[in-house]
Amino acid sequence: MSEVYANRRSRLRDHVNAAGTAAALVTRPANVRYLAAAAPQGSALLLGRGEDLLVCAGPPDERPCEGRPDESVRLHVLPVNGGDTAVAAAGLALAQGADSLAIEEHHLTVSRHRALACDAPGLRLTDLGGAVEQLRVVKDEEEISCLRIGAEIADQALGELLESILVGRTERHLALELERRLVDHGADGPAFPTSVATGPHAGRRGHRPTDRRVEEGDFLSVCLGATYRGYRCEIGRTFVIGTSPADWQIELYDLVFAAQRAGREFLAPGAACRDVDRAARQVLDSAGYAEALPPLTGHGVGLEMEEDPQLAPSAMGKLDACVPVTVEPGVHLPGRGGVRIDDTLVVRPEADGGPELLTITTKELLAL
């Protein structure tokens, strides 16, 4: 695995050198982990002229979920109260003979940026921009394997919940139970705060669970995800509680399912991101739900929950193979509830079977 991380750093170094900069400083935690296999709290990664250094405020925590730093990166642990790791890393770059340093301006605060300029006045600071985030878009098979295992864990947790008694339990209690089950099955933890929405709350994107209790005839929408070795996946499903669904529930569910299927089927290398969004959005828009639609149909996943690419009307760019994304259309009707169906998939060429579905819990409208 050390070669994988060395190759990633080499690609970033080529980008930095091509821009005329001698060294790079990476501070965004997900980017540090992507390049160094671990990101101890507050750490900074220096891609220097002489060697690469992981600057830490203290000894790294080697718990499996935190990762172990790549052996080919030298650890530089600051003394107690040794100051800011980014500022220290800039000083180390200067000591290596660098005259310029690319930094992640989108992550550094103004005060940290000022401290860098003040403590290392001999360095010309340039913006690294989203160079590391762009490297992270296309995943290797080891990364996809972590996502696949995370999806299996999320499927297990959701499947067990569906076998339990739900009527009378609160959204908050069900969300906590799901998160416990994720950990029981081997997840580092939830990928994001678990959403359980019932009745008039159902179908609302990002709903935070309340003390509302599940009632007969409710729509129940659940959105959860597992983190496994730092990689995050997502699944969302909608069910009906305790009785046969009403006609309007069947109609709305079938419509969202058709939209989700349209988006999934459009996933292919070379497909424009905005066209994937359009494929799903048109199904719902044509049925008169334009005002009820979320701002995007899906997004990339990986070390962070919402990565590039964005599947949205204004999205630029095209999909590549081995890019994991969510497809998650939904409709929420105020006062009535709604439907969300959400899967994590990996873009694959048609010759390899087309998009790989990672989250496999049934999308049939079940009455629980």
Summarize the structure.
By secondary structure, this protein is of the alpha+beta class.
Key traits:
368 residues; alpha+beta; three-stranded antiparallel β-sheet; six-stranded mixed β-sheet
- N-to-C CA distance: 45 Å
The computed structural class is alpha+beta
Give the tally of β-strands: 19
Mean pLDDT: 94
Q: How do the strands of the widest beta sheet line up side by side? A: 4-3-2-1-5-6
Structure description:
Strands 4-3-2-1-5-6 form a 6-stranded mixed sheet, sandwiched between helices. Strands 7-10-11 form a 3-stranded antiparallel sheet. The chain contains 9 helices and 19 strands. The protein has helices at 2-18, 29-36, 85-95, 110-119, 131-137, 141-162, 171-184, 247-265, 273-285; strands spanning 23-26, 44-47, 52-56, 74-77, 100-103, 124-127, 189-190, 195-198, 219-224, 226-228, 231-232, 235-240, 298-300, 307-311, 324-327, 330-333, 337-340, 343-346, 356-357. With 368 residues, the protein is of the alpha+beta class.
